[in-house]
Design goal:
Elements lengths: L5 E5 L5 H9 L4 E6 L4 H14 L4 E6 L7 H15 L5 E3 L5 H8 L12 E6 L4 E4 L7 E2 L7 H7 L11 H17 L5 H21 L5 E4 L2 E4 L7 E5 L1 E5 L2 E8 L2 H19 L3 E7 L7 H8 L8 E5 H7 L3 H8 L67 E5 L4 H11 L3 E5 L9 H13 L8 H7 L5 E3 L9 H18 L5 E4 L5 H14 L2 E6 L4 E4 L3 E4 L8 H4 L3 E3 L10 H4 L4 H14 L5 E5 L17 E5 L2 E6 L4 E3 L5 E3 L2 H19 L3 E7 L5 H11 L21 E4 L17
Parallel strand pairs: 1-2, 1-4, 2-3, 4-5, 12-13, 13-14, 15-16, 15-18, 16-17, 18-19, 25-28, 28-29
Antiparallel strand pairs: 5-6, 6-7, 8-11, 9-10, 11-12, 19-20, 20-21, 22-23, 23-24, 24-25, 26-27
Helix pairs in contact: 1-2, 3-4, 4-16, 6-7, 8-9, 8-20, 12-13, 15-16, 20-21
Length: 740
């Protein structure tokens, strides 16, 4: 093996990619780089590596509390170099934040002539670690020794009992008769349920017998980290094909499938990460439209991660192991490709998946990007002055359009560019973005003036200062992004060579951020990112400075699906919507938070609440979003009792309530990223305490964290849970969010 042999692997909230990359990269020493919030996950990955790959060493190193701060990443890589005596050779940037990825990928050892990092990302569609550099081969994923127990363990989950339950063993042995003889006190409904579970398990084991790369487990219960003797989730059957997992749930009828789909997907992802899919098997004949009803129940439950089959379908469609693999993991490599390997085969990268359904992490660099010289990010052709920290002429800005328009508007505000190029992907939506960015720029330069309309923006010249690249690029193609950005930078440099150029990598996919950074490094532009929690802008080469003022945000563009709330919330909610959320509780929280703010507050209501055709999914989103300058607080309060398809009102399980909170958190996170925070609301009584524990478990809060996340901004994926009665408002509702 070439020397040096140190690999750096970034760790995010999904530790599975970090484990697989650590087993695959050709290095004797693995450094798992994490933030304080993901340290426990990194430590579990290190423990798994110690068992699975004793020939290599693994250590955990932190970048500090803020995963969006590039300074901590650079400092950590310098420590790695110093501690190991050599510069790291390999980097997997699949995990962590975009800022962590870019800062790590651009890091160069301080010793002149030292080789640069070889950067890879995990492509789950083809099970390859794909390189950024054309000179490096793609590496087939090494997953030897990775079983269901290992995958659960790195996510902090373990089984209460590591064998099939006694009733299932009895049913496997002799069917319903043996089950009744062994457990004479079981109710007939329980007997039918256990027999169905055993039948599904027997079939799965029969068709996979003799396949060493496939593992099938019967029912398993996951131990509760806060109550170790109890379970926090359970599965009826688990199937592992190499490192991917199919979680099987057996139900007595289709209604149970629809009601439990959201929670089942949530617990599957929590225990196994994004490698997990869910299959519901129900008794009785196939039900037309059942798959669509699941999506109607929760728009996040797409056919790519959850399926519903009848027991008859299972027997007829899954006739052997290959049929099982093709049905649920069609892109996965076949058997025999999962062995540990230290020698990279001479495989060229395959074309990545594209389109709206492709994963950002799945295709971060389909085009090979030649390596730049091993120099500091801004040293190739350094601009006369820093475009971020120095006082001087307004810079040229190049940035990307991501799913969160808020980051782009904040970047325009922070840099106040003379001109800006916005690079959008083919998958992105550009409508209204140019005008919103021009308005944010006008407001930054004229803070006391009224905001102009589109005609006024043209007249002032601000609209012409914001341009889109001529052609959209593939958002998963770092090379295409680098080419587009580099060409534009070269063009403006030819016209105005003295004007500084800044490339902001805060928004867009990881591939887009990395492509922008590569273009900046080769052209001598400054590479910047926003540290939203501190309202600061940081240049990776020259340091940071506080942003001036707060961005004026076109919230109608950012919060698509929402409308300004005029009058009481109850006036705009239809009866179907009122059955999905606790309207008075949301209204009381919004009223108190708005009155406590010393600055301007916008109040936005979910449009689906007013539409009977869409209101059934309102619990999956924040019912009201309060905006405070460039911050957003989402208020979600799923009802504890809801009408079913037949109209009968039934209680909601703790898991379903927690899943709705989790879905609403993801919904706001997609739009506002770290500038958003969800407050989950419930009245006292019932099982709200347990539901809060489930919310904390889904969001990876450790037992000693107190659960429910903290208040404030910077950790958008962890909601804060508030138990309150509108007649007795909690002190938290008196927080002046406008100053946070």
């Amino acid at each position: 093996m070439d020397s040096p042999s140190v690999a750096v692997v970034l760790v995010g909230l999904n530790p599975t990619p970090a484990l697989l990359s650590s087993l695959t990269l050709p290095a004797d020493r693995i450094v798992l780089l994490c933030s304080d919030g993901t340290r426990s996950l990194a430590e579990r990955v290190a423990a798994a590596l110690e068992r699975l790959a004793p020939d290599r060493t693994a250590r955990v190193m932190g970048v500090g509390p803020d995963p969006h701060d590039p300074v901590g990443v650079s400092a950590a890589l310098e420590r790695i170099h110093r501690d190991h005596g050599v510069a790291p050779r390999h980097l997997d940037y699949t995990g962590g934040t975009k800022v962590m990825s870019v800062a790590a990928a651009l890091h160069r050892a301080p010793v002149t002539g030292a080789p640069g990092l070889r950067c890879h990302y995990l492509d789950p569609a083809s099970d390859l670690l794909r390189p950024v550099d054309a000179a490096d081969p793609a590496l087939p994923i090494a997953d030897g020794g990775v079983d269901l127990g290992v995958l659960a363990d790195v996510h902090g989950a373990h089984w209460l009992e590591d064998r099939d339950p006694a009733p299932v063993r009895a049913a496997l042995r002799g069917g319903a008769r043996a089950l009744r003889e062994t457990f004479p006190g079981l109710h007939p409904t329980e007997v039918r349920g256990v027999v169905n579970e055993a039948e599904v398990l027997r079939h799965l084991r029969r068709i996979t017998r003799g396949r060493g790369d496939i593992e099938v487990l019967g029912p398993r219960r996951v131990a509760d980290p806060r109550h170790p003797a109890d379970s926090i989730a359970d599965f009826d059957a688990l199937v592992r094909i190499r490192h991917r997992v199919l979680c099987v749930e057996v139900k007595s009828g289709p209604e149970e499938v629809v009601a439990r789909a959201g929670w089942t997907v949530a617990k599957a992802r929590r225990v196994f990460g994004n490698v997990a899919k869910v299959l519901f098997v129900h008794t009785g004949p196939p039900v037309p439209g059942l798959r669509e009803r699941i999506s109607d129940h929760s728009p996040a439950l797409s056919s790519s991660n959850v399926q519903a089959w009848s027991l008859k379908d299972l027997r007829e469609r899954l006739t052997d192991a290959e049929a099982l693999r093709r049905a649920f993991f069609p892109g996965q490599a076949g058997p025999g490709s999962g062995l540990h390997t230290r020698t990279a085969p001479p495989a060229a990268p395959f074309p990545p998946p594209t389109g709206p359904s492709a994963s950002p992490t799945a295709s971060a660099a389909p085009r090979a990007v030649p390596s730049a010289p091993p120099v500091a990010p801004c040293a190739a052709a350094a601009a006369p002055i820093c475009a971020v920290t120095a006082t001087g002429p307004a810079p040229i800005l190049v940035t990307a359009l991501g799913s969160s328009r808020l980051g782009l508007l904040s970047a325009v505000h922070a840099h106040r560019p003379a001109r800006a190029l916005l690079i959008s992907s083919r998958q992105g939506v550009r409508s209204g973005v140019r005008e919103a960015a021009a308005r944010a720029l006008y407001a930054a330069e004229h803070p006391d003036a009224p905001l102009p309309d589109t005609a006024g923006l043209r007249e002032s010249g601000h609209r012409d200062r914001i341009r889109f690249a001529a052609d959209p690029v593939d958002g998963f193609d770092a090379g295409a992004v680098a080419d587009a950005a580099r060409a534009w930078i070269d063009g403006v440099r030819a016209e105005d060579p003295e004007r500084p150029v800044v490339v902001d990598v805060t928004t867009g996919t990881k591939a887009m951020s990395l492509g922008l950074a590569l273009a900046a490094r080769r052209s001598g532009a400054c590479i910047a990112c926003l540290v939203v929690r501190d309202r600061a802008v940081v240049c990776l080469a020259h340091g940071g400075t506080a942003a001036q003022g707060r961005a004026v945000v076109d919230w109608a563009l950012v919060l698509d699906g929402y409308a300004p709330l005029v009058g009481p919330l109850s006036d705009v909610v239809c009866p179907q919507g009122a059955a999905q959320i606790d309207v008075p509780l949301v209204a009381a929280a919004a009223d108190h938070l708005a009155r406590a703010a010393s600055g301007p507050v916008g109040v936005w209501a979910d449009r689906s609440l007013a539409d009977p055709a869409t209101a059934s999914t309102a619990r999956e989103r924040s019912a009201v979003v309060l905006t405070f300058d460039d911050r957003a607080v989402g208020l979600v309060a799923p009802s504890w009792r809801r009408p079913g398809r037949s109209g009968v009102v039934r209680g909601v399980s703790r898991g379903a309530w927690a899943q709705s909170v989790s879905a609403a958190t993801g919904h706001l996170n997609l739009r506002c990223d770290v500038a958003g925070k969800v407050m989950a609301l419930s009245r006292p009584g019932g099982d709200v305490g347990r539901a809060g524990e489930l919310v904390a478990w889904i969001t990876h809060d450790e037992p000693d964290d107190g659960g429910g996340g903290g208040w404030g901004f910077g950790d958008p994926q962890r909601p804060v849970l508030v138990v309150a009665d509108p007649a007795a408002p909690p002190a938290l509702w008196n927080t002046d969010v406008s100053v946070l």
